[in-house]
Amino acid sequence: MSLFGAMLSGVSALNGQTQALGAISDNISNVNTVGYRGTTTRFQSLVTASTTATRYTPGGVLSAPLALVDKQGLIQSSASPTDLALQGKGFMVVTNAASPASTDERFFTRAGSFRPDAQGRLVNASGFFLQGWPINVTTGALPSDLSSFTQMQTVNINTINATSQATSSVAIQANLQSSTATNSSAATYVVGNIATGAVTADFKRGMQIYDSLGQSHTLTLGAIKSATANTWNYEIFVEPGTDLLAASHATGNATGRVVASGNLVFNSDGTIDTSTTDDAAITTMNDRTSTALTVNATTGIFSGLTLVWGTSVGASNSTIGFNVGANATTSGLTQFDGASQLFGTTIDGTLYGTISGVTVASTGIVTARFDNGLTKNIYKIPIATFPNPSGLEGTSGNVYSSTANSGSVTIKQAGTGGAAEVAVSALEASTTDLAEEFSQMIVTQRAYTASTKIITTADEMLDELVRIKR
Description:
alpha+beta; Tick-borne Encephalitis virus Glycoprotein, domain 1; eight-stranded antiparallel β-sheet
């Protein structure tokens, strides 16, 4: 009967507008929720099969909520380096387990307000832990399989609490005065005399280097003017000599122990002449066989300089490239008639240092910073994408779960294949537009009121119908 159908149509309208008001209320309630995606209500008519050309049977209306998951929110700056926002398509992967097993469910979110917990694991306000690929801190390599969740881990900024870096390269910039008189000891020069102090060097400068444990040592270059034109006898030695293993470095004593010696040759224009510097004359004292160092005639780098540390030091052996400057240039050692002096050194390696903070790049790479100046890449944040993100199922905590309607998840690296980039020290605001929500609230209220009129009018008509019987 059309009269009862009209009343039921009004009831369906009341139900639909109630659902719409519920969505509006949630949107307004979450106007300040980071990463929140608004929900709108879509309506569709219901038509009954009994409707004909001469007879209309009301069917009513059906409401369906639609989550606008793929809508980009406003990116707002933040003071925290672990606050993350996404610019573009995709989601961060999170779990509600600190150390997730393969069977634990993975969730997806745009809410990037993460903070380290007591163990350094990044967790958001809802208790979900951020997942990332661990990076090999030595090689910088990512896991071999980036297509699934199996090789992801909870991002922990305390993965490396402290670090140091052994010195592997030393470059020196200095001038040896050309007018320096021939040293009286040059004719009777014996390797080790400069290191032990038996001969007063015409030039002597120490440089701080670091072993594998972050301990500092002094590597010194000493030289005396030779009777041969444009030639200097030199020694490279470690002070104090007790830092080195005596059995492996036989020349020198506790004052200084020689690790390399030979002749430095200069051109007549004052530039270093590594092409004629005889590498056989540059003899290493790393062992009792006195193996010759290798000198690159172009770059001026002495390679094969190995320091064997004593047992009291306890560090791994150090292999150092010692650079005196490219051949026929003034980039390293020079011989001009100016005072013998050190201009500078370039030395890698650092002391022991503890973690002082983290940074995140737009590519999703999480980098640990240490108070000794070192940085180490420790994680990379993956981005999960879906064919139909609006088909994801919302879960408490501002996270989503995949469904058959959303399609299968695809894991991508940030900024590649259409995946979002990571905005650092930023948060993505709620997509709620208060002006629009209030407008929709007014429309919903009026529609609800109008729907009640359908029911009251149908009720009055039924009363009239009953009165006919009387």
